[in-house]
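Why this split exists: single-chain examples teach little about how molecules sit against one another. For that reason, every record in the complexes split bundles all components of an assembly together and asks for one structure covering all of them. Below is a record exactly as it appears in the raw files.
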Amino acid sequence: MALPLKTRFFFSETGDIARFTGRFFSHGIKPRYEITEFFRQCFIIGYKSLPLVSLTGFIIGLVLTMQLRPALMDYGVESQLPGMVGIAIVREIGPMLTALIFAGKIGSSIGAELGSMKVTEQIDAMEVSGTNPFKYLVVTRVVAATLMLPVLVVISDCIALYGSYLGVNIHSVTSFHLFFDQVFHRLAFGDVIPSISKTFFFGFAIGVIGCYKGYTSSKGTEGVGSAANAAVVVSSVLVFIIDLIAVQITDILGLN
Amino acid sequence: MSKKIIDNVKLGIFVMAGLLLLIFSLYMIGRTESLFGSTFKLRTHFKNTNGLTKGNNIRYSGIQVGTVKSMQILNDTTIEVVMVIEEKARTYIHTNAITSIGNEGLMGNKVINISPGKGFAPVVNENDIILSQKSIDTDEMLQTLNKTNENIAVISEELKSTVLRINNSSAIWKILNDNSLASNLKIALENIRLASVKSKEVTTDLYTVINDVKKGKGSAGILLRDTAFAVQLNEAVVKLKQAGDNANRLAEVLTNDINKINNQIEKGQGVITALINDTSITLQLKRTLDNIEKGTDGFNANMEALKHNIFFRGYFRKLEKQKKKI
């Protein structure tokens, strides 16, 4: 194999991640399940991320509405603003924004946490004490991330729509009922289901990359930092790639 | 341990909130797509669907009642559209309802409008086919408009030449500029008005006359209406004719007689001829008459004397008494 070093490194890394994912499934399916740890992780990953995600969601809804308004006014279709913002938030901005914030917050924290555990040899100690560190640390975190991100996205979508409602009401008066009627009038199952489905994959990717980077971090305090950093960067890029694939799949399935 | 429970409760609330919001939004979308609640299917055929797609709204007299479920091409001129309609709208949709494809706004999505038909018809059943109406197509509209425009161009050209001719004609302008024309016209109209009043009176009279005639009143009425009179008239005419005939015959007889007399006169025969032609006879006659006169005078005197005679006086007195009695 006369591949350049960087290319070889890239492919070996990809292979390692794939193997890590396979290991996750083989360990995850087998009992005994770490239920308590799983709930703890859900609390940390899901509930603790809610304020941050809510804030960003609210701001993006408000800002998007205010930014779209002049363009729609040029065409005289200002009344379509709720429908347009609703589609934009539910289909793309809600899942993507939440996933990126989630990657920044959770990907880095998992990477750093597992990285420091690896560096301080806590993982090796766990293995010695008879606990399966992979099950206890990786499987719980990945499953928690996979299941928590969709919940976060749904809540964030709603908060963003509320922000949009306030944004519409800055310049004109629309009742809450009319606003949501207009939003849901434009929305179809083909908008909601694919966009919620892909967030499971986002969450899974973020969890797997964070855990992989932390679990395989090199020795030393430098390794912890680079693990956290790489976890955020790679998981963010993966979120975009998965989004591209998801849009193409929904297009092929005719759900658009 | 208690902190862990609190954390779990928070997590539970968080997850439940997310799930409830998701279910709520799915329900809201499902409601607009009428996937929940009882529905029934209706079919309609179009020649051209003008870009109708699955999921487009269906409105009954402007109210959202369902969505388009599917569309399929049956043959080269027929496209079948299957519509999902809410069950609660079924009682209002009759089999004579008419569907048409319209727009949501000027440039919005296509919608199917169901409008109620005229007259009575039973309520629709599952999978009934309702009739469709050709929708107004913008292309066709523009084509018609184009034709109209061409016609208007021709008309305006003609109008232009007419106006030019009117402007060039001095006679019309003379009439229009003549001030006396108006007063003359006014007088003429006044006369016409009076004439019409009179004619109204005349017709009223005529009407009563005609009415009388109809009823058989007056001589004309009898003449026209009385059948007995006609028979009498006929008899009278027949009799008149007979009288005429008799007069004719009489005249002939008279002519014959006169001719005979004439002949006798000319020949100098008979008494009359002698009277007419012999002058001496007249003198003799005169003398005779004188003599008769003298004779009668004498006779009168004799008679008077007789009355006073003693033998006959009683008889005459008796006559006078009888006269007085009467």
